[in-house]
Q: What sequence folds into this?
């Protein structure tokens, strides 16, 4: 979501209202990116151009009550090589997965600059610094312009 918001230059409130199933008040507490039920799939499909089935496959769990949620990390975990391409897989959020299956690189679990963990949530703090650590603002991607050139999507 942060990547999509950044590439399309949209404010958090716009993105969150368009794709979240949460109430307006709940939006500012943040949307758990691991849980599918937090999103309005029809709206997300419309704005992303992806099929609902593909969106479902990108979530860690369907609902907050799923027992599998306990196997996931509430903090962002990423492969540096994938992130450099603007990619992140929900698979990385599962705690038993410690290495990227494509690059065999160990997953990073905290900001390399300040050491703080980054919540895996769509919230105002995260989108204020897209693809950067919300604590120290250090970028998680060396060249943000590569994302804008390769993945620019404009919604209505």
A:
């Amino acid at each position: 979501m942060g990547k999509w918001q950044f590439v399309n230059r949209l404010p958090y409130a716009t993105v969150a209202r368009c794709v979240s199933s949460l109430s307006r008040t709940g939006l500012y507490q943040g949307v758990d990116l691991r849980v599918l039920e937090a999103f309005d799939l029809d709206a997300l499909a419309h704005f992303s151009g992806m099929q609902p089935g593909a969106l479902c496959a990108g979530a860690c769990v369907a609902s907050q009550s799923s027992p599998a949620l306990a196997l996931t990390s509430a903090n962002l975990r990423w492969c540096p090589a994938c992130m450099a391409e603007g990619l992140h897989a929900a698979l990385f959020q599962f705690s038993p997965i410690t290495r990227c299956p494509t690059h065999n690189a160990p997953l990073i679990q905290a900001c390399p600059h300040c050491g703080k963990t980054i919540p895996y949530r769509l919230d105002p703090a995260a989108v204020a610094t897209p693809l950067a650590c919300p604590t120290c603002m250090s970028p998680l991607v060396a060249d943000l312009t590569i994302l804008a050139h390769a993945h620019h999507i404009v919604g209505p």
Summary: Residues 1-9, 151-156 have pLDDT under 50 and may be disordered.
